[in-house]
């Protein structure tokens, strides 16, 4: 994030909080005229799934609060990288943000449960239900976030993570001397090392040029991201390994959340609940349509799905990551992992 942008946001947040302070001394009708701004930061560009989410969220919140709240959306690039957004949210400069678990897991180790290979179910409806409402999930992760002045509002899947590579990868041995871009959570890095690759952690914005200049040989992301970030232009293969779904979270500043007036908190909670089905459907539709775009734009892109024997080889290789997760997160992490394996029905 540029120094100027941070400075402007800090100044804006000072005026927002002083407006709130002075507002209590103003006559009631003046207070009602002054909308409060909720800043919502995204880790993805306009047109992305997170942007679709934020636009639908904004519309609902503004309608429900009848003009008392303005939701300002900050798309990727305006406030920095994913980790900057989380920092800004913890500080309260931004009230709401998307935070991908593959990056947030660096700061909050418990979040790395979603980097564990083959944990989620193949059943999208089941995943949706568990991600939006599992009580152990919200208990363990919610507490871990509160320790950092953050509140976990929801989690959802952005779709299957597909490997886009410049070599054919069907077996762990194909990863020999292969540089794979990964998100920064340590267990992501460990997973690809166990597969036999050479993992390289880079910000989202650097992936395209790193692929183009052969600094990395592949990366992993949902289909819509492969299309909108043009990763397919600089790779030759799309490989469905079934390894992971891309799980993102929506977080809020905890102190801000606790101070929200009851009616606004209610509008926020009900909107988050309504968005669960909406975003699930939009996700499936967007990934489907963007796959067709890639097929149209690059007909010679090689697309393949690993068979169950090939998947088993990767799953087998990554087994130690599960133990490492438990080592890193202790009793609470173990409790969460076991609860999720049971809920998704994908035991160890
Ligand atoms: O790969 C990443 O870093 C990013 N991928 C997506 C689809 N969203 C945000 C995240 O930072």
TrEMBL record:
Keywords: Signal, Transport. Residues 1-22 form the signal peptide. InterPro entries: DctP_fam, TRAP_DctP_sf. Belongs to the bacterial solute-binding protein 7 family. This is TRAP transporter substrate-binding protein DctP. It comes from Enterovibrio norvegicus. The gene is dctP.
């Amino acid at each position: 994030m540029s120094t100027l942008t941070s400075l402007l946001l800090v100044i804006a947040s000072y005026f927002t909080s002083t407006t709130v302070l002075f507002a209590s001394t103003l006559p009631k009708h003046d207070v009602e005229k002054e909308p409060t701004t909720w800043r919502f930061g995204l880790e993805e560009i306009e047109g992305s799934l997170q942007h679709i989410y934020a636009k639908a969220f904004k519309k609902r919140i503004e309608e429900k609060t009848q003009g008392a709240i303005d939701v300002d959306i900050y798309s990727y690039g305006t406030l920095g990288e994913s980790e900057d957004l989380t920092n800004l949210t913890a500080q309260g400069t931004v009230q709401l943000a998307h935070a991908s678990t593959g990056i947030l897991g660096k700061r909050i180790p418990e979040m790395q449960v979603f980097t564990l290979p083959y944990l989620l179910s193949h059943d999208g409806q089941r995943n949706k239900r568990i991600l939006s409402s599992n009580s152990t999930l919200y208990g363990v992760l919610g507490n871990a976030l509160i320790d950092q002045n953050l509140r976990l509002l929801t989690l959802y899947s952005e779709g299957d993570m597909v490997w886009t590579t410049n070599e054919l990868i069907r077996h762990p041995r194909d990863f020999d001397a292969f540089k794979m871009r990964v998100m920064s959570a340590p267990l992501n890095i460990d997973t690809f090392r166990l597969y036999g690759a050479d993992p390289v952690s880079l910000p989202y914005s650097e992936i395209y040029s790193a692929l183009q200049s052969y600094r990395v040989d592949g990366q992993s992301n949902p289909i819509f991201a492969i299309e909108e970030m043009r990763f397919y232009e600089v790779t030759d293969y799309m490989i469905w390994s079934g390894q992971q779904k891309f799980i993102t979270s929506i977080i809020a500043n905890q102190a801000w959340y606790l101070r929200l007036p009851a009616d606004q908190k209610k509008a926020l909670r009900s909107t988050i609940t309504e968005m669960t089905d909406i975003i699930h459907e939009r996700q499936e539709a967007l990934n489907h349509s963007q796959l067709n775009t890639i097929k149209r734009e690059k007909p010679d892109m090689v697309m393949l799905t690993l068979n169950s024997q090939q998947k088993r080889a990767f799953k087998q290789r990554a087994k130690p990551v599960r133990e490492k997760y438990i080592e890193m997160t202790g009793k609470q992490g173990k409790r969460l992992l076991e609860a999720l394996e049971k809920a998704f029905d994908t035991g160890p």
